[in-house]
What we know:
Keywords: Signal. Residues 1-27 form the signal peptide. This protein is of the alpha+beta class. The chain has a domain at 41-119 and 161-221. It has 3 helices and 11 strands; from the N terminus they run αβββββββββββαα. The chain has helices at residues 12-31, 191-194, 206-221; strands at 41-49, 55-63, 68-75, 80-86, 90-94, 102-106, 121-128, 131-138, 142-147, 153-158, 163-171. The protein has an 11-stranded antiparallel β-sheet. The radius of gyration is 24 Å and the shape is globular.
Amino acid sequence: MASAMKPMSYPPLILLLISCVNVFSIASKIADPTPAAWPHQFHSILFMNNSAGNLQVVDLWYDWPNGRNFNIIQNQLGKLLYDLEWDNGTSYIYTLDSNQECRTLRFPVGVLRPNWLEGANYLGQQQVDGFLCNVWEKVDFIWYYEDVKTKRPVYWAFYTGMVAHVMTFEVGAVLEDKNWQAPVYCFKEGVEERSPVLESVAGGGSSGVFTLMRGVFDGSMGQ
């Protein structure tokens, strides 16, 4: 009768090394969580503040299946701006008051993708606005804080000094189609040159930050 095989034995030092490798392997997997992809449709209210103390409330509607994104921006005791973005690379930034201001911007990329945070650098955990958050940094442009328990975004900090506090986050909320139409004066010939709307859109305002996000993140991720 054949004898039973004896289990292979290792010297104590080898066993210790194997244990350490296993522990480090498990720890590395646990230590680097990945940010949740954005829901394909959501509505969020953001309270924004820049380094100069200018306050804004942004009503954000994200609608990836229909290729569109909308930022309705109320400046404190100031102008109400509409920043309407389409996946064909066109944005309309306008007012709905009697001034009929509008500016059309065109980009080689479309709406920010749900997985735009892929490749972000994990920085650890931090308490912000009363929530324990995982924190990531992406291309030295944005620091993104996500609630550890719910995976909802809590706080964003931009390289410009602008910060955003996420006040509400409604997954699946959709704005009615009739609200996605830019006004007719946005389509007048030469409107880009004639429009008096805020030159600050390209650098400093919250609409400028969201517009830059399209180019920085979708552009870096390719088509």
